[in-house]
């Protein structure tokens, strides 16, 4: 029995992705200027959308909230990624979670599903301020995410940059081991990616973007719904595997749906029921209020 399990695992890792997978995840950012047809995506077999939520320096993607609402109402799974730079990684992680949590609090409860799939965009930063995130900073970022959510995020990177960064003599085995707790999302527009230690396989493969993609269009389409030049991704597994993967890896932000009535927008301390990946606990936390009119309900989120 044990030997057959190892044979199955080896087969899973070695078989080409297209033999058992489908292009069923799309990623978006503020650079995609159109209004995406999420219902059309779902009809074409898309299951999940991963959207940029922040980019340097601490700028919230203006398209994120509106598209989150539309995608979840269309029945799609939702994910968020943070485009990193070389500034304080803990501060970046906190800003990332704050943006995700405050936006998710306004999603219809019936559309929330398993939660938000979190991703660190660990790529070479050549056009935003702050420089490129180092490996030690990536370690601090993912550890902060794990500390606050109980789960490790995914790591997205181009194959060449990831291999170059992790093979540096300045990177320790301990740092590689920490990053190995994260699931891997690799970009390669020409060939199926080769994995880089400490990972044994990738979970998502971004095979095209901005109309670029060298694979046969019949198997690797580069458009979806009304987006002609999409960024499309293959998940290593079938549809039910992807659903289970999202269920296991996603974060359900704490404090979602907590409301109070108050007459001021001054910061205050409160006890809020936190519902997260580790169950429900009554935890004191600092909260912030956003007041639209006097005596109106105010949504609280962790500050």
Structure description:
The protein is α/β, with parallel strands linked by helices and 303 residues long. It has two domains: 9-249, Glycosidases (TIM Barrel, Alpha-Beta Barrel), CATH 3.20.20; 259-302, no CATH class. 28% of the residues lie in helices and 24% in strands. The protein has helices spanning 2-14, 38-43, 64-73, 89-104, 135-149, 159-166, 173-179, 239-249; strands spanning 23-28, 48-55, 59-60, 77-83, 116-121, 154-158, 184-187, 204-206, 231-235, 259-261, 268-276, 279-288, 297-299, 301-302. Strands 1-2-4-5-6-7-8-9 form an eight-stranded mixed β-barrel, surrounded by five helices. It has a three-stranded antiparallel sheet with strand order 11-12-14. Helix 4 links the parallel strand 4 (77-83) and strand 5. Helix 4 (89-104) crosses helix 5 (135-149) and helix 5 (135-149) crosses helix 7 (173-179). The longest helix has 16 residues, at 89-104. It is globular. The termini are far apart.
Instruction: Tell me the number of helical segments per DSSP (H or I, 4 or more residues long).
Output: 8
Integer count of domains: 2
The CATH class of the largest domain, by name, is: Alpha Beta
Order of helices and strands: HEHEEHEHEHEHHEEEHEEEEE
Q: Which fold name is given in CATH as the topology of the largest domain?
A: TIM Barrel
Helix content: 25-40%
Distance between the terminal alpha carbons, to the nearest Å?
50 Å
Examine the secondary-structure arrangement and name the CATH architecture of the largest domain.
Alpha-Beta Barrel
* Rg estimate, integer Å: 20 Å
Proportion in β-strands: 15-25%
CATH superfamily of the largest domain: Glycosidases
Determine the structural class based on helices, strands and strand pairing.
alpha/beta
Tell me how many strands there are: 14
Mean pLDDT: 81
Main sheet strand line-up: 1-2-4-5-6-7-8-9
Largest sheet: 8 strands, mixed, barrel
**What would you call the shape?**
globular
Extract low-pLDDT stretches.
1-15, 256-303
């Amino acid at each position: 029995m044990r030997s057959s399990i190892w044979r199955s695992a080896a087969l899973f890792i070695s078989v080409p992705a297209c033999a058992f997978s489908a292009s069923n995840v799309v990623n978006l950012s503020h650079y995609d200027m159109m209004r995406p047809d999420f219902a059309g995506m779902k009809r074409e077999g898309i299951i999940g959308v991963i959207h940029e939520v922040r980019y340097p320096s601490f700028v919230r993607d203006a398209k994120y909230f509106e598209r989150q609402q539309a995608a979840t109402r269309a029945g799609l799974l939702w994910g968020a990624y943070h485009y990193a730079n070389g500034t304080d990684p803990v501060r970046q992680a906190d800003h990332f979670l704050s943006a995700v949590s405050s936006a998710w609090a306004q999603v219809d409860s019936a559309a929330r599903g398993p939660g938000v799939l979190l991703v660190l965009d660990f790529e070479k930063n050549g056009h935003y301020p702050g420089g490129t995130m180092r490996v030690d900073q990536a370690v601090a970022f993912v550890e902060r995410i794990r500390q606050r959510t109980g789960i490790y995020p995914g790591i997205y990177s181009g194959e060449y940059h990831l291999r170059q960064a992790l093979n540096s003599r300045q990177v320790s085995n301990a740092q590689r081991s920490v990053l190995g707790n994260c699931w891997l999302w690799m970009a390669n527009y020409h060939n199926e990616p080769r994995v880089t230690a400490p990972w044994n396989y990738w979970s998502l493969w971004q095979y095209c973007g901005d109309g670029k993609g060298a694979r046969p269009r019949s198997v690797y389409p580069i458009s979806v719904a009304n987006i002609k030049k999409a960024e499309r991704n293959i998940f290593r597994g079938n549809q039910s595997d992807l659903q289970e993967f999202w269920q296991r890896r996603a974060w359900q932000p704490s404090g979602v749906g907590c409301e109070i009535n108050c007459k001021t927008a001054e910061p205050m301390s409160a006890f809020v029921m936190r519902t997260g990946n580790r169950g429900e606990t009554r935890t004191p936390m600092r909260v912030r209020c956003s007041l639209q009119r006097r005596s109106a309900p105010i949504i609280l989120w962790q500050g």
